[in-house]
Amino acid sequence: MEKLIITAALCGAGTTKAQTPYVPITPDEIAEDVVRVAKAGAAIAHIHVRDDAGKNTMSTERFVTVVEKVEAALEKEQLDVVLNLTTSGSAFSDEMRLAHLPVLKPEMCSFDPGSMNWANSYVFLNSPKFLETLGTLTQTLAVKPEIEIFDGGMIQNVNYYVRKGDLKPPLHYQFVLGVSGGMPGNVESLAYLLPKLQPNSTWSITGIGKSHLPMLLAGLAEGCNGLRVGLEDNIFLEKGVLATNAQLVTRAVKIAKLAGREIATAEEARQILGLRRRPNKTKDCIYET
């Protein structure tokens, strides 16, 4: 069976130090955590960035700072990780959400194919115009879109953007199940989604909060290509016990090996997903502040 890709979703947009002291917020903390998860077995690091106050930001300057520090930390330790940069950020303009991509040209970025009432508290907005622009931009830049599926209708939106040419197969899906307002984190949701994937696609899975471990197990049972773990999705190792990102990666690796799956390196993940290795170092990037 093909090797399994482990993605570490380090901090997300909302996990706070008040919830867990282990969530990396500053550029230095994020860089240090990328090194830890790489040593634990993660092939991909999914990265959001925060401002000096710890709040979510889509600032290109902040992305450049973080990626620069991550690259330097990985180079120092002679480690290799695929960087997957978020484009999620409903509070920001479409232009700001996309601006870091042509500057950094990451190997992967998120593509959230629809809007939803996130946790029944605010609109997680991804307009058709934004998605068309993002899809075209990823093709121009040779960035692999990670298609994050939170709700059932999003799977049909993917088919629409494939027909239009905004998304180009083969696709990589990331199921994010268990968000209130989206599909629940259970096997019924997975059974609904899997038959609807585009041909020759790869897929990964994560569950939010209490569905984190059940979705990990369900993904392995169904032969997933990848598992996503991390403090963006779940802050506990077990009930009442706070986790680190490295601990969540280590647990996923152990469980995967018990299920007979070997763990992919970053280079093997590139081969499985058809990624273009990022050629330029951040120090050569030019951007406007």
Automatic annotation (TrEMBL):
Keyword hit for Cytoplasm: no
Keyword terms, alphabetized: Metal-binding, Transferase, Zinc
InterPro entries: Aldolase_TIM, BKACE
Keyword Transferase on entry: yes
Cofactor(s) recorded in Swiss-Prot or TrEMBL: Zn(2+)
Pfam families assigned to the protein according to its UniProt record, in alphabetical order: BKACE
Protein name: 3-keto-5-aminohexanoate cleavage protein
